[in-house]
Amino acid sequence: KSPKLHNALFKSVGLNAVYVPFLTDNLANFLNTYSSPDFVGFSNTMPHKETAISLCHEVDPVAKSIGAVNTIIKRPSDGTLVGYNTDYIGAISAIEDGIRGLQGHKDETVSPLAGRLLVVMGAGGAGRALAFGAKYKG
């Protein structure tokens, strides 16, 4: 779904970019092969989220805490690969919005997850991101 979503967004804002899916079994080889300045970033999914930590030149502190990188940005000035984890923001926000909708209130100052038990099934990068986000939200 990502190419369809991202390419529609690029078009709507007039950005000269394209989101293309690539299948790889070796993330290090992929990053070395696609080192052209034309590639400015990559979405990264299983099974490479944990491996990406060691392949990025810099890793955002949140991604380090989670132990997984799902977004890699190539810094245009020097080609440095910087790893981020956006899984926890997207997933936790969706869960919070769902709970707020069910409860009929829009108070965004306190997370509706605070004080609740959240069960995470899975121990991969996305599962750890959810656990991190839930802990962060109380």
UniProtKB/TrEMBL annotation:
Coiled coil feature spans: none
GO function terms (MF aspect): 3-dehydroquinate dehydratase activity; shikimate 3-dehydrogenase (NADP+) activity
Protein's name according to its UniProt entry: Bifunctional 3-dehydroquinate dehydratase/shikimate dehydrogenase
Entries under PANTHER family matching the protein: BIFUNCTIONAL 3-DEHYDROQUINATE DEHYDRATASE_SHIKIMATE DEHYDROGENASE, CHLOROPLASTIC, SHIKIMATE DEHYDROGENASE
Main enzyme class: lyase
Domain Shikimate dehydrogenase substrate binding N-terminal: 1-72
InterPro entries named in the record: Aminoacid_DH-like_N_sf (IPR046346), Shikimate_DH-bd_N (IPR013708), Shikimate_DH_fam (IPR022893)
Domain of life: Eukaryota
Pfam families: Shikimate_dh_N (PF08501)
Known EC number: 4.2.1.10
Annotated keywords: Lyase
GO biological process, one term: chorismate biosynthetic process
Organism expressing this protein natively: Agave amica
SUPFAM superfamilies assigned to the protein according to its UniProt record, in alphabetical order: Aminoacid dehydrogenase-like, N-terminal domain
